[in-house]
Amino acid sequence: MNDARNETAGVGALGYIGIGVSSPEKWAEFGNLLGLMPGAPGTDGSIRYRMDDQAWRIALHPDSSDDCLYAGFDCGTSAGFEAVLVRIAQAGITATRDGDLAHVRGVMELARLVDPDGVPLELYYGPRIVPEQPFRSPQALSGFMTGANGFGHMIVNASDPAASLAFYVDVLGLSLSDRILFEAAPGVVIPLVFLHCNERHHSIAIAPKMPGSKRVHHLMFEVPGINDVGLALDRVTAAGLEISATLGRHSNDHMISFYVRTPSGFEVEYGCAGLAVDRATWTVSDHASISIWGHKREHI
Ligand SMILES: [Fe+2]
Predict the structure, then answer these.
(1) Distance 100 CA to ligand 1 centre (A)
(2) Domain that holds residue 46
(3) Could you read off the pLDDT of 181-212 as tens digits, one per residue?
(4) Selection from 95, 90, 94, 65 nearest residue 266 by Cα
């Protein structure tokens, strides 16, 4: 990993995600419970959800994969986009500019590539925003914590975690936040590595891939306050959804959150009070526990 990276030449935020879903009906109810706002459908047949002024953040594509189909990184500006493409080319990796796909996604320019596990990634700038159609959550929720910090975070299950770490840091320009050596069972330690590209403590985290696991372990959505978290927990509990980890506070990003199983099998973490990273002063730390309290699970 190259610590002499250029902080300005990396991606700026995890801006959107596309998910293949076998049950759009269950996802519609799930999205409603979490407070996502239905947006205009995509020209590609996707069902789109909003979290803020951006035209969409989450796109659901009816298919049988029940997994991440693509993730988009916002590069902020045309200059930022071009700088990331230069960085990628210097790493010997091909990113393909795709104007047709940019039109479908509703962004000004886009280039696509894949991560070491073959997860399609899209680099872009200039997402469409629709402030003339104000964000209104179907729940009593003022909004999500998004903006320049992106929609949230994604934990990827990597078949070669070292290769994925090198890719996301050296090629895309994210920075190491910290690591947790998570003792999943006595004597079974799972290293989790957390990476940031803005003030959000992590936009991407890398976990070792287990047999049969999906591309994504979980997505995280951050809301303004603890009451937003508690009210959502009440809603998903009343709806009979599986709480895969109880309310708790993480040791590294201080997020107070719970985890709920999506209709696609992976999880969504829903929380508040995440730590803001100052990239100028941040120093890396190592943790032996995933949480200060809570986050009790029956399954990893
Ligand atoms: Fe998380």
Answers:
(1) 33
(2) 7-127
(3) 998 889 999 999 999 999 999 999 999 999 99
(4) 65
Rounded Cα gap, residues 265 and 221, in angstroms:
17
Assess if residue 107 is contained within a domain.
yes
pLDDT at 213: 93
In terms of Cα–Cα distance, which of 45, 68, 21 is closest to 264?
A: 21
Q: State both tokens at 85.
A: 């493409």
Local structure of residue 12 (DSSP, 8 states): -
What's the burial of 233, exposed, middle or buried (CB within 10 Å: 0-12/13-18/19+)?
middle
Same domain, 19 and 116: yes
Residues 155 and 276 in one domain: yes
Does residue 204 sit in the same domain as residue 239? yes
- Determine the 3-state secondary structure of 38 from DSSP: strand
| DSSP character string of 103-159 | HHHTEEEEEEEE-TT--EEEEEEEE-B-TTS----SSS----S-GGG-S-EEEEEES
Å from CA of 132 to ligand 1 middle = 32
What Å distances lie between residue 176 and 16, 94, 100, 194, 210, CA to CA? 21, 24, 34, 6, 23
Ligand 1 centroid–CA 222 distance in Å is: 10
Place of tokens 């306050």: 225
pLDDT in tens, 74-112: 999 999 999 999 999 999 999 999 999 999 999 999 999
Domain count across the chain: 2
Instruction: Say how many Å lie between the CA of residue 144 and the centre of ligand 1.
Output: 15
Q: 63 alpha carbon to ligand 1 midpoint, in Å?
A: 25
What's the token pair of residue 9? 């030449």
